[in-house]
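For reproducibility, we list the full input for the pantoate complex.
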Amino acid sequence: MQVVTTISEFRAIHHAFGHETTLGLVPTMGYLHEGHLALVQRARTENDRVAVSIFVNPTQFNANEDFNSYPRDQEHDLALLQRANVDVVFMPAVSEIYPEGFQTYVEVTGVSQGLEGERRPGHFRGVATVVTKLFNIIAPERAYFGQKDAQQVAVIKRMVSDLALAVEIVVVPTIRAEDGLALSSRNSYLTPDQRAAAPVLFRALEAAQQQYTMGVRDPELLRRTMLAVLNREPQAQVDYVSVANAATLVELNVPTDQALLLSLAVRIGKTRLIDNLILSTSKK
Ligand code: PAF
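The corresponding predicted structure, in tokenized form, follows.
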């Protein structure tokens, strides 16, 4: 496994792979877990070579967020990636991605605006910018993202389509702990007591899914079902629960037969967790 920190080193390696070689990219912010490894495994099966980027991207954190304290463990990450048979790891410094004088950003409107975008101003501008830059540096045939960040997936797909970027976006299902908690680097912030409370997010989604399976289509009823479950957990402070059109992410107020995105953001102590499920009649 080769580990490089500069754009020119990465390009030299890619050049040496040759034109016929397909390359899959798994973009990450490090502190890797089974969720990331599921992306790597999928990339491994679909490409000749696999690249992973590890870059805690400052532009997607706003002033109140946890950029400085975001968990980092380079040694552990590299050991996991070596074992997962990754070919090349790109770990740039902030100054490599955002050199002095940097002043170009990518902004996706529409799908960026509700949900996480509304609560985290500037977040998706930072994500879209760094992902575009990574696509330009790494030039992968395919890039792999987790369904856990449903809005991020929608934003990136929109951006790739709107800007005709030559990369296929592959979305991999959320990996969960046995008790249903979606794996996330931020779970490491939870105390044991908070960790025990955190599966309430998935239980809330499951309760709404069960209603949906029984024929409930009223978005307000589905939202109330999620809220009722969350409100029974004293450690859960609800940021939002949402029932949106899965394609447009527009919040729904009237029943529809189109696929739904159920999503929620909840604080457990100081840690903000998100999760989601897609519901569609074709799954029944
Ligand atoms: O999902 C993440 O870890 C990040 O948002 C990403 C896609 C690596 C961009 O920094």
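Residues 185-276 form a domain with the Pantoate--beta-alanine Ligase; Chain: A,domain 2 fold (CATH 3.30.1300.10). The pocket of pantoate is lined by residues 27-29, 57, 60, 127, 130-131, 149, 152 (CB under 6 Å). Both points were considered when choosing residues for closer inspection.
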